[in-house]
Amino acid sequence: RYWRDWSSDVCSSDLLLLLPELLVIQHVDREGPDRIADWACAKGITVQRIRPDQGEALPAVETQKPAVAVLMGGPMGVNERQQPGLDWLEQELAWLKQWLAQGRPALGICLGAQLLCVASGGSIEPLSAGDPAHPLKEVGFGPISWQKAAAEVPWLQGIPTHQLVLHWHGDRCRLSEHAELLASTLHCPEQAFQIGQHAVGLQFHVEASPINVERWIAADQAFIRSAGTSGERIKRDQKRFQSTLEREGNLLLDQLLNHLMAQA
Hints:
The protein is α/β, with parallel strands linked by helices. The chain has helices spanning 35-43, 87-101, 111-119, 210-219, 221-226, 231-263, and strands at 2-5, 10-13, 21-25, 47-50, 67-71, 106-109, 123-126, 128-129, 134-135, 138-146, 162-169, 171-174, 179-184, 192-195, 199-202. The longest helix has 33 residues, at 231-263.
């Protein structure tokens, strides 16, 4: 017997006490777990959502029951964590370092990937391209190229070498020696990476629902224009490629989340 509270993305079941849960750490209203929450409900897995940006406390790492931490995106960057009003981001980074030190599994998406990168000893810098270099933003739908095959990374089984995804960022992750590069674009080498077998960072988005993408467009017009594109183009591309985006994105999430749940 399963139920879902759509306002909080929480799933539950009489049988869930034996299963690891998803600990979703969300940073802004419009960037929720979306397809990840759908996946969890279909599997009968509890989703606990925490909003550190609203003052909600992260659980003690030592006492937290088996879980996969899922760190969502947001318009802020890790390098802004010392700015007024973002002290919670500094606290989240310290918590994540403890989580990883315990070998706990984690998935970071966009801002979440930045947090994973820094927590593992890497750094974040503005994305740039050209000679001389100039600032660059990747916004809209475009392909990534996976640099690893399924023989090396089993959760990539059946994933095309070049996968269409949603980009929405202007930074890049400079990975530490503890992280392994998994996917790139021409302008941003670090599109996906893993830390051991228990943590994966995705700079891109496959979790976002069409409804929420429209919310991003409405809220982020200036950022979209600064990237040289438009909300209308993103909407057109989403409609044009929707079946491919859903099929490939859902397959990636299913295999990746199954892998991380096994680590928990």
